[in-house]
Design a protein that fits this description.
This protein is mainly α. The chain has one domain: 3-Layer(aba) Sandwich (Rossmann fold). The protein has five helices and four strands. Helix 5 links the parallel strand 3 and strand 4. The longest helix has 13 residues.
Length: about 110
């Protein structure tokens, strides 16, 4: 009887992942680009059209609940940071950021 080759089982199943991009991030990118603090190398519309052509990236509209959570958390002086943190909190998802103020706040789990 011939021996069968060993079948290697995958260690973990591959799953689809989504990255939600709050609309507040899109607007903040616009302002940062205008101020010369970031370089998108194309128009804001083109940048986000390209990003959202990948189905793993999805825009996240601002909801009234996010506004309420941002108001109640009294997050710093940057209204964009408040809305971005509120978006992650209302979705119960970690936030991908390098922003030291957000990371240090402890208001949301962060990844970077």
């Amino acid at each position: 009887m011939a021996s069968r080759p060993a079948v290697r089982e995958p260690r973990a199943a591959v799953t689809d992942a989504l990255v939600y991009v709050p609309v507040a991030v899109m607007w903040e990118c616009s302002l940062l680009s205008r101020a010369g603090k970031i370089k998108l190398r194309r128009s804001l519309r083109s940048f986000f059209d390209d990003l959202f052509s990948n189905p793993a990236y999805q825009p996240l509209e601002i909801s009234p609940e996010q506004v309420f959570v941002a108001d109640e958390s009294r997050f710093g002086r940057d209204p964009f940071d408040g809305l971005i943190v509120a978006a992650a909190r209302t979705m119960e998802l970690p936030l991908i950021t390098r922003d030291d103020n957000i990371i240090g706040s402890g208001q949301v789990k962060t990844i970077w």
